[in-house]
Fold each of these.
Amino acid sequence: MNLASSPPPSSLSPLASDLPTLGRLIRSCRLHCELSLLDAAEIVDIDVAELSRIEDGKSAATEALFKVLAGFGQEMLIMQRDDASDALAAVGHTVNWYEVMERRYPSRERPVPAALVLDCTTPTLFVDFDGTLHVGHAYIGEDDEITLDTGRPLLEFAPLLAELLEPYPDVEIVLTTSWVRRLPVERVIEYLPPELRRRVVGTTRDIKPRFSYVLDGTERTYVVSSYVYGKRLRHWLAIDDAVFGAAQFGREPGELVDHILLLDSSRGIGDSNALQRIALWLTEVHSAPHG
């Protein structure tokens, strides 16, 4: 039996990012139907204790959960985070995925790198493509042709980066874009303007994050920090829309935070504040002692 003839008039986001949030959403649906816990459990044909556990954000049988969702006229969708962001925006909600991940894994322990001296002073910029050098996410077709889901030009902000770096010929670039996992590195580099191509010294393609980092959204930060410590880099900056959880990595708490520029994917480095931050980093690096 479907209890909900219309969506509950609630300001709650429909994103069930964890069990407590899922429980609150289900309780909201039940209250919208003006049902007691006992009556709702009887109608959807589950034990009242089981429904109570679900509403309290505790683990429960999957079958019971689906009975409850079906009974309240709700459906569960499984999709990529980017698509989920679009779906939420369509119904008037936004989501900060970093905050979601922080709530989901508040006390995760991170490995501490072994003691080492960061004695490589070459200024290094870690550069993503999607949400960084252009607005949108790439679709790589069967013929390996690349288009963006926004219809915007590929790497439209690359000339801005080239202009910023022009006075600093010693700055090197490491690509963090996921494109290198699908296409040959040489081809990915060819998408960049010549002024940036010559600066590329490597990619993070061969650094494999733990699955737990993939799940909590911090894999890009892990990959970048692994490259940094492996190459003993002292002066570096990562510009990316997916470098989440920087405070959780490093030899000391917060060590990486000042090296991370987490971008708004809808603006990339086209955002004036982002350009100012990169310019400031360039100035600081080139005024710092290199011994």
Amino acid sequence: MKQLASLVGVMIALGTTMGRVIPDAYAQTYPTKPIRLVVSVQPGGNLDLIGRSVADKVSEGLGQRIFVENRPGANSTIGLASVARAAPDGYTFVMVAQSALIAAKMMRNPPYDPVRDFAGVSLIATLPQMLVVHPSLPVKSVKELIALARARPGQLNCGSSGNGSGSHLALEVFNRMAGVRIMRIPYNGDGPAIIDLLGGQVPVKFDNLSTSLPHVRAGKLRPLGVTSPTRTTLLPDVPAISETVPGFQASIFNGMMAPAGTPPEILTRVHAEIVKFVQSPEIRTRFANQGVELQASTTPMEFTAFLKTEYARWAKVLDEAGIKAE
């Protein structure tokens, strides 16, 4: 009996050891074939540009090509759903932004659960929005805008793109936290909205830095604040809105996810290459000129936790504001 017990103990110990060795060995040989990176938007947008840059740089470090597959449609849910169903073997990843979380929450029967069906790899970038106004509006600060909005409730208009967009949600959060009622004027995209803002048809907008900056520098728009928790290094002279409205934050994030169940050793391997990407001085400068701050998570688990927190935060905003899919 003692010999049997001893043999069982050895087998258990061996099994435990092999359980550690096999994933480690897999991680050491990974990858052995090309990797697919799904981008759930049309080519040319910000998420696509970052995804392609990441794919090029990470391919060098992994020694295997990462090819980008654009799968747009249904507010990003088509591409995300395809990855949720993919094998968790480290050969399929997906770029993610708020839209992936928000779109699922806004659907009656979403094709994936943004928390349960994915594992985080890393945050890659944050994109602060900027609260800008037409120069004809008699305000020069967030404080003055709030005072004007309170004096004229429901009379100030703010242009934004579709339901659940970054510009829409930033306005909803601002209205609630600042205690004002600035009216949303929806547009079919941020492009038409910025045209009317420049023409003075709408006086207020939350907009991406990349599209607002040229007009701010030309004196055609006046910047009041940025939506990041603190001032951005991209515009150090423009205050954060949180300096006037404590706790305000409505920046957009870009990151990478994998199907749930992907081996943690693989997630760590890819994460390490993303860290190299965001730390490259040449790449950081290039994206800073586009209004993008590159930033990696400390670990894949940290990004998974971040996604859960972001989903809960925006789900609450959507529920409280009664925002549904258009």
Amino acid sequence: MHPIITNSKRILIHQLGEVYPVLIISLPLIILIRLIAFKINTKKGIKLNLWHEAGFLLFGLFSALIISSTVIPEIIITENGITTNAFTNMWQSNLIPGSVIWRSISASKHFDYSYFTYNLLGNIAIFVPIGFFLPLLWKKLNFPLTVLSGFLFSLFIELFQLFLPRFTDIDDIILNTTGTVIGAGLYYLLRFIAPRFTEKFKYQ
């Protein structure tokens, strides 16, 4: 993600502006993947599970949105209408755990909640679906494997950003993994409350 923005009047938006192009491109690709999986499962004698397919569709769309929001260069529109983008801060990185998190918290103490919301809460929330859908859709993914998967997904994104005009931040990995933990916790809570419902999403 982008470095700390101290001016609360600055608005951070993606270059494409809307998420719809990402959804439009991702949807047919996800459907194609599931059609191939359905053909393979049919040969193995595995019946179609519409609950699983619906869950996988949502999981795929969430994953596509995460990738788009972390790979596409960012545009900053200032209060004066001046537009800049991430290319003005190419290949910057933060390798000190907690430093950006602390700066975000410090900014909130001065009633600047924009980056606190965007960086801390945003990086946590965006990975909650990952932690929730992984164990919901696949039996073999227990809590440790789910958290590890979320960590590796975030690590891959941050390492990939090293080759892009993006801000690579080790704190993003911490926050993303935290979101994965929360998502997995929500799944296990749902499984405790409604075990029969959660089992509908898994292939037997």
Amino acid sequence: MPDLEFEKRFAELGIVIGVDEAGRGPLAGPVSVGAAILPEGFSHPVINDSKKLTEKKREALFDELCEDKTIQWAVSLVEADEVDEVNVLKATHLGMARAVEALGVEPGMCLIDGLAVPNFPYPHEGIVKGDSKSLSIATASIFAKVTRDRIMREAAVRYPGYGFEKHKGYGTKGHLEALRTLGPCPIHRRSFQPVAQLGLPLGGNEESGDR
């Protein structure tokens, strides 16, 4: 289970922020990046890498954490069109910087899940599998994941037929079949190969002006 060992290691530098993303791999929807600052001595028996939690547990944790006024957090979204414009890796790095900036504090150290980020505007440390090691990264992962999941459930209503409420934009068999039948909708990442290969005009509800 993640703990505060990394946070304690860098505490003398100032405010320590955990950063993690959700939605780098899907064919549709935004990249969501969470940033979280935990109070000194914080502990929780359930918080873990969001991928290791059930959707029901993540949702309950999200609501619980939102009510805890001792936790500072922010989520940044990089929409599909910007992902297409700059590529998904750069989009993720942009989202990380924006999430940290949204907290409105001067970070002493940002703990980022994964590798170090080139040209990141804040002091940072990349921690491979950080969401299973650092409690602030794991908390950030929950904020990022649940925010994105809720957005994709809303997208399922706006763009029916794709099954976004089930696969959240990932390239499942059902999603690929819907893509072949309906074509891409406005939240699909046109630069991602399974979408780009179709070479079809935008689908969804574009004709009704629902973009």
